[in-house]
Write a structure and sequence with these properties.
The complex is a heterotetramer of chains A (216), B (456), C (173) and D (984). Chain B contains 16 helices and no strands. Chain B has 456 residues and is mainly alpha-helical. Chain B has one domain. A 4-stranded antiparallel β-sheet of chain C has the order 2-3-1-4, covered by helices on one side. In chain C, α3 packs antiparallel against α4. Chain D has 984 residues and is α/β, with parallel strands linked by helices. The relative contact order of chain D is 0.12. The chains are: A mainly alpha (216), B mainly alpha (456), C alpha+beta (173), D alpha/beta (984). Chains in contact: A-B, A-D, B-C, B-D, C-D.
Chain lengths: 216, 456, 173, 984
Amino acid sequence: MQKQFKLITALIFVFGLIIVINNSTFRMPGNQQNYEPIQPIDFSHRLHAGEMEVPCQYCHYGASQSRHAGIPATSVCMNCHKYVSATRNDLRLEEEQAAAEDREMRPLTSLEIIKIYSAMGYDTQGNPLKDKKGKSVEWVKVHNVPDFVFFSHKPHITAGVDCADCHGDVASMERIKQTENLSMGWCLDCHRKDHESLEAAPERTQLLLDCATCHY
Amino acid sequence: MANHVESLRKPLVHGNKNLKTVTDDVVGIMDKKPTGLWWIGFIIAASALTLGIVAVSYQIMTGIGTWGLNKTVGWAFDITNFVFWVGIGHAGTLISAILFLFRQKWRTSINRSAEAMTIFAVICAGLFPIIHMGRPWMAYWMLPYPNTRGPLWVNFRSPLAWDVFAISTYLIISAVFWYIGMIPDLATVRDRAKTKVKKWIFGFLSFGWSGSFKTWHRYETVYGLLAGLAAPLVVSVHTIVSFDFATSAIPGWHTTTFPPYFVAGAVFSGFAMVLTLLIIARKAMRLEEYITVKHIENMTKVIIVTGGIVTLSYATEFFMAWYSGNGYEQFVFLNRAMGPFAWAYWIMVGCNLLTPQFFWFKKIRTNMIMVFILSIFINIGMWFERFVIIVTSLHRDFLPSAWAMYKPSYVEIATLIGSFGLFFTLFMLFIRYLPIISIGEVKSVLQFKGRHGGEK
Amino acid sequence: MKKYFVVSFDNEYDLVNATQEFKNSGFTLLDAFTPYAVHGLDKAMGLKPSRLSKICFMFAFIGLTIGLYGQYWISAVNWPINIGGKPWNSLPGFMPIAFETTVLFAGLGTVFTLLWRTGVLPGRKPKIYAPDVTDDRFVIVLTKDLRSFNSEKAEEISTIHHAVEWQEKLESE
Amino acid sequence: MSKEKRYWMTKDDVTSVGSVAGPADLEMTSTEWNRRDFLKTTGFSLAAFMTACSKTPVNKAIPFLIQPEEVIPGKAYWYASTSHACGTGCGVLVKNRDSRPIKLEGSPDHPLSQGGLCPVCQASIIELYDSKRLLHTKLSGKEVSWNDLDKSVVQGLQKAREKGQQIVLLTETVTSPSTIYYIQKFLKKYSNAIHIEYDPISYSAILDAHEVNYGKRILPQYDFEKADMILSLDADFLGTWLSPTQFTKDYRKNRNLEAKHISKHIQVESRLSVSGAKADKRIVKTPAEMLQFVKDIEHSLQGKDGHGIALEIAKELKHYKGKSLVVSGVNDLAIQILVNRLNDALGNIGKTVHLKNPSFQKGGSDFAVAQLLTDMKAGKVGALLIAGVNPVYDLPEGEQFGELMKSIPTTVSFSAKNNETTELCNGVCPSPHYLESWSDDEFTAGVLSMTQPTIQGLGDTQTFRKSIAGWAGFSDDERNLVRNYWKKIYTTRKKGSQSFNRWWDNLVHDGFANIKAKSLSIGRFTKGSLPKSEFNNGLTLMAYPSLQMLDGRHAENPWLQELPDPITKLTWDNAASLSSKKAKELGLSQGEVVKLTANENSVKLPVYIQEGQSDEVIAVSMGYGRKGTERFKNLGPEWIQKKATLGDGELVGERINHLLGRNENTLSFSGISVIISKTGKKKDLALTQTYNTLKNPENTSPPSMEVRPFIQETTFDAYKKDPSSGAHHGHQVVTLWKDDHPYNKHHWGMAVDLNACTGCSACVISCQVENNVPVVGKDEVFRRRDMAWMRIDRYYSGEGDDVDVAFQPMLCQHCDNSPCEPVCPVLATVHSSEGLNQQVYNRCVGTRFCANNCPYKVRRFNWFDYAHNDELENMVLNPDVTVRSRGVMEKCSMCIQRIQEAKFEAKQKGIPLADGDINLACQQSCPADAITFGDLNDPESDISKLVEDPRHYHVLEELNSRPTVGYLTMVRNRKEEKGGNHHG
C-alpha cells in the first residue's frame, strides 16, 4: 500500500514538473517566447496594422531586400503623423466640445505622438524647432536571434512566407510580443516541410537543412 | 589430517589466518589511526591534486592556448594522459573479471584494490576528454538527448562519441562491479563499528546486507555475470580508445593493429601500476601476509607476456610501414626513431622492451625494491608510448608546410601532475576508509578449514 | 508472531552437513547466514539455480536493440546528415556503441534486478538472527511455527554437527 | 560580378550617405558587433540557466532618425573608388554596409588593376578605423582649429618670403592633376617656394636614365602582356616593383597555356624575390656582377665578344626583337641607362615600353632631396611643408634631417598618422583616409582615377589639396576643389562628347575615365655615357621593400604585420637574410642576432637563412622599425607563458634606412659594403612555415618517397607534347558503399592554377578581411597558431642558389569524403548538400580531432579569445560572418555568405544562378586570376572545364577524401632538360 502511494506520488511529481515546465515562464535558456517588453512609445500594431491596414512593408521596408526588416526611421512615422496627431476619439470629443462651446478646435497632440515629435526635435504641434537636434527612439528589440544564426528576411519574403507565420498575428497585438519560441527546432519545423508555397523539391528541402543555411 | 590441497599448492595467504583474524586485520586498518607513511603519501597526493585543480581552472578560464598545442599538433599531453589513464584502468577489471572467470584464486587479496585503482584511473582518464575541449562547459553535447534544436543528435560515426559511451559504460560497470563486491565487506565493517556515525554510514552503504545465503546464492550468479560482461568490456574499451587513432587518416595512427596493440599495452601498463601501488600499500598498511610475494611474481609474469605483445606490436608497425610501400607511413616511423622526437621514442623502447626482460629472473621478481623500480620504468615507458604515437604522428604528417614542433607548457605539466594527484588522493582515501582487501573472498580461500585447522 | 530456531556454527563444513540433515529431517529452512558464499550450501538447501542469467540476456538484448536501432533511427531517419560521405546507415560504425549499450543495459539491469529481488537496497536495515554472521559465524535459521517442528530433533542435529550455540528467536527482534 | 553588379554613385549631398559615423546611429548595433559575446553567453548557458528563466537580456534597436535615401540597413552597397595605399592607384570597389566600408575589392573594369588588388590595399581598410589616427590639427602639440592653423602657417610662409628663405613643399609623387594645379598656384603665389617630390622606394635612377637617353625625365609604362621575353634585373615586378598588380595581370595574360606560346621570363637577381620565384630561369648575381652582366649582354647584342649565359640571353632577346622587355629595379643610373640601351636596341620602345603614355606613379628625385639637405644645412629653408612622406624615417640622413628641421621656423606635416616626422613638426595636419576623401589621380597618362568618400570623415581631417589650395587662395569644399578643376579643363582632356555633368557622374560611378593624355615631347634616343657605379665587392647589403611593408607606411597595420612574407614566411619582424652557404661559413644559425654595420651606422637583426640568394649579399627588408609600432607590444592573448610581441621600447623589426648610401645623385639600396658581427643573442622568428621543401629530411627519408608529390610541375616543351605531363598516376577509386549523397543542385568546386599563382598573398588578406579572421600576435604565430584560413605554402627545390620555388595556396579542400567530418562527435562539421564542408561554430565543443585528422592541416582553432576589444576597429568586421569565440574550430567556408547572398539575389530575381555570379574573396582579389570557383554540376562552367583539364589534380588524391578544391600543374617555360616534375 505504502509502496503504491510512493509510486503515485513520484509519478504525479514528474508529470507536474513537465506541466510546469511547459506552461510556465520557466523556459530553456535563450528562449524568449512571450517576450513582450514595454516600448518607449506605446505604439499599437493593432491600430496601425489591424485597423488602419498599413501593410507591414510600408514601415518594415527592408524585409524584402535585406537581412533586416528594419525598424522604421522616425521620419517614416512623420509621413503620416505630420497630419495625424491624436486619436480619432479624442479629436471627435474635441470637435464636439468646440462645437458646444462655439469656438475653434484646439490643436490636439496625443502624449505618445509628442514623443515622436520630440524625437524629431519638433515642438508639440509638430513644427521643427530651430536649435533642437533630434534623437532616435530607442526601441526594445523583441525578436532576438543569437549572433551565430544568420537570419535574413529577404529569402523568406521571396519564398512567400507570411510575416504572421513567424511574428504571430501582429495585427491584433496592442504591444508587440514574441509568439514563437524561435528555437532551432521551430525553424526546422518549417524548413523541413515540403509545402507547396515553397515549391520544394526533396533536394531543396535537404538544402534548407544544411547547417550553412543559417550558421556561418 | 592435513588438508591434502595444501601439499599441492602454496597457501594464498600467509601467517596462519583464521576467519576472525582476517576480519580483524582488514577492518582493523580502518579503525587504527593512519600511519605516518600514509600521511606523507596523502599530503603529497593532495598537493599535486591542488596544483592540478589550479592548472585546470586556469586553463578553462583562459583557454586551451595555455597548453603548448598548435594548429598542427592538436593533441599532446591531454590525450596522452587520457590513453595512459585508461590503460592503467585496465588491470583492475582484468584482475577481477578475467582472472575470476579463469578461477585464478590468487586474485582474491588484490582484486579490491586493483578495481579501486581501475575506477580512480578511469576517473582521471575521463577528465581529460572533458578538459581538453575548447568549450568544456558544452561537454554534455556529446550525449544524445532530445533537445529543441531540431533535435540535433550526435555523430555516432565519431570515435569520440564511441569513447563517450565506452568510457562511461566502463566506469559505470566497473564501479558497480566494485561496489557489489564490497557490499558484504561493508556489512562486516558495519557490524563491527563502534561509533554510531560509522554504524550509520556503513549501515547505509551496505544496503542492509545480512549475509543471507539466498542472497549470496543470487549474488554469486550476478558476480559471475558481471565478470562475464566486464571481460569483453575491458577489451572493447581500449579497442575503442585505439579507434580514436586507428580510424583516422593520419599516418602512424591509421593502423589496423591498434586494438590488440593497445589492449596489450593497457594490461601491461595497468599491471605495472598495480605493482607500484601494491608494493607501497602492502608496506604502508602492513599487508605482506595477504599480498604475498607470490602475487607480485604472478603479476610480473603477466607483464612479461604483455610486454612481449607490445614489443611485437612495435615490430609489426615498422614491418607494416615498410611492407605497405606507403611513403607517408614509412616516413612517420623513420621520423619516430630518428626525427626530432627520437628521444621520446627511445625512452619508450627502452622502458617497454628492456624492462620486462629483467622479470625473467626469479631473483629480480622476488626483490620488491627491484620490482617497484622496474614497474615505475614501465609506467614511464607506457606514458611515452602514447606520447610518441600522438605527437610524432601529428607533428609531421602529410604537408611539410604545416610541420611543427610541440613543447608542453607549465599548465600542461601541472595538469599531468594533478591527474596523478587525483589518482593517489583517491587511492589514499580508499586504503584508509574502505576495506582494501575483499574479506569475504579471502575467507573463502583460507587454508584454514574450521575444526581440521585446530582452533578448536 | 513468528518463531525461529537459530543454530550457529563456526565453519562451513558443519554448516553444510547440518543443513543437509535438517533438510532431510523435514525441517523448514528459512535461510542460512554466512560470512562468504559457501560452496555446496545451495545444494544442501535445495536452492534452484538463479534465473538472473536469463534476465541478463534479456537486458543485453534490449540494450543491443536500443543501441542499434537508436543509432540507425537518429542517423538515417530522424535527421540524416551527410557526414564525410558516409552512408546514412553506417552499420559498422554503429557497432562499438551498440556493444557498449548492450553491456551497460545487461550489467545494470542484472544488478538492479538482483538488488530489487533480494531487497538489498540503500537504507534497508539488515535482519540479524545471530551475531557475527558477517565475521566468522555460519547460521541456519529454521521456522518454528509449524506444528511439525521437533525441537529435540533440531537440537540433536545441532549438537551432532558441532553447533556453537542455538536458540529460539521471535520475529520482533 | 562585373556584369551584374551595380556600382553606386555618391549622391552630391554626400552627408546623407555617409552621415553615419558612430555605431549609435546604426540599426541592430548590439547584435552585429557583439556576435562573439553572444557565442560566449550561450557558451555559459548552463550557468545562465537560472537567470535566463526570469530575466531576458534587453537588446536595443535604434533606427535612423531620418531615413536616408537608398540605404537599407543590412544591405550592402558598392562604390567605385581608387586605392591610395601604395601610390600605384588600383581601382577598388568599396563594399559599404550600414554606411561604413567593410571590404575592398578590385574594380574589374579598371584599366590598370583590372580587378586585382594587392594585400596592402586589401588591408588598408583597417587603417580607416585606426583609433590611434590623427583626428585633430595640432600646432606645437596643442589641438587647434583649422582656421588657427591656417593663420599660423600663412604667417610663417609670409615670414619666410620676407626673409627671402625658401618655402619647400616636400611630397611624395603627386598624381592628382587638381593638386598639381593648386600646387602650381601656390608656387606662383609664393615665388620663393619650390616643390620637391621623392619616393621612399626610389625610382629616381629610371627617371634620370630617361633624361639621359631621351631628354625627358619620365617613367615609361611597361607592357608585360606584349612581352614574349622578359629580362628582369632585380625588378620584383610581380611583388613590389612599380605597379605589381597591373604587371601581374598583364604578365598572366601572356602565360596562358592555351596559347601556342607563352612568355619567357628570366630573372637576374641577388636575393630571392616573388618574381624570381616565378621566373623560368633565375640567375643569381651580386649587384656588381649584375652590372657587368648587363654590359656583357649589350656587348653580345652588338655582336662583339660575348660568352656564356649572357650570350645565350642576348641571342634569345634578339629572337624576340620588339617583343621583349628589359626592366631593372636597381636604383643605379648606369644599369638603367644600359637597360634603356637594350630596350632601344631590341626595338621595344613603343611596343613593350611606352614613353608617350608614361606612368606618373613615381616621379621623385633623389637628387632634389640631396639638394634640399644641402639647402637645409645652409639654413636657406624658411618653411617646410611635408605631405605623404616621412623623411625622418625614409631618408638615410633621416636623423640629420630631423635635427635640421628643428631650426626651420615653419614646419607642417600632412599625415593620417603620427610618424617620425610629424613628431618634429610645428604644425600637424591630419589627412583623411582615402576612403573618406575626394581625389582625382592620373597614375598613368590617359587614365583618370576617381576617389570618393564612402564614409563621413571620422575626424576633423582635410586633404593636402584643400590646405594648399586654401593657402594659395582657393577656398572651397573638398569635392568642389576637384570638380571645379575638371570643369575648367574638361574640354581639353575629354574623350567623347558627353556634357561635363554627365561625364562627372560617370567618372564617380565608374571610378575612372579614359582621358586624353597630355602630349609629351620625347627626344630621340641618345646612348649617353655610363656614369661610374659604386657597387662594392665582397659582402654587401641589399635593402628591399617587403611585399607587406613596402616603405613602412603601413607598419601600423596589424593585418600586414601578421601577413607572412611570401618568400621568407616571416611575420612581425625583418631579418638579415643570408644564404645557407654564407651562414655556415660565418657559423651563424637562424635566429641568431647579428650586428650589421654599413655607412658608419649599424643595426642588430636576427639571421634568416634564405635559399636562392647570392652568397655575398645580405638582404634586409625595409619598412620595419617604424615608430608607432610599439602599439603592438601587448597584442595577443594574455597568459602566463605569453611572450610580448615586443620588448620594452622595441619596435616591430629594425629600421635599416640609415644604412643606405647615396651614389652620386641616386639613393643606393644595394651593393653597400657591410660588416657583420655576432652579438651572441638569439631572437624568436615568428615563421608560419619552418620546413621548406617537399623533400623529406635526409635521415628520415623513406626509400619509396624522397619527394612528396604535392606540387605537379612540368616544362612548357613537355606540356606541348603531352598536356598531362608532370601528372602523377591517377588513382583508381573503388568503393564498397553505394553513393548515398548525390549533389543534385549545385556542387561547388575550386581550382587553383599553380602556374598563375605568384604567392603575392592578396588572397590571404582578402580572406582575413572578409571572414573576420583575427590577428593573434607574434607569440601566437611563433607557436604556430596563426589563424589565416588561407595560407600559401612555399616549397623550394634544388640546392644553393639554384632553387626553384613553388607556391601552393592551401585552404580547406572541401572534400566530399572529408576526414574531418566523421570524427566530430557533436556534428559541428558536416557536409552540405552542395558539397561544402561546413563548420558550425556554435555547435563546436573544441575537441580538435577534425584538425588533427585533416591531411591538409587547414583548420584553425581559437586557442584564446582573440582580441576584438577595439570598438572602432570592430567596425571593419563583416556583419554576415560570425566572430568566433574561444574554443571553437574554424576554417575556410568557401565564403558561404557570398554563395548564400548570390542565391537569395537570384531567387528574388527569379533567374538561375549563372557561372560567375559568385566571387569568393580570395578569387576576386587574385591579381593573377589563379583561382576559379564555380558549380561542378554545370558542365558549361569554367570550373567544370578546368576539372577536365589534363593539368588538373588533387593534393593527396590517394586518400580518397575527394577534395573539390583542385590544382593545376605548374608549367615553366623551359627546355625539357630539367625534366618535368622537378618537385616530385
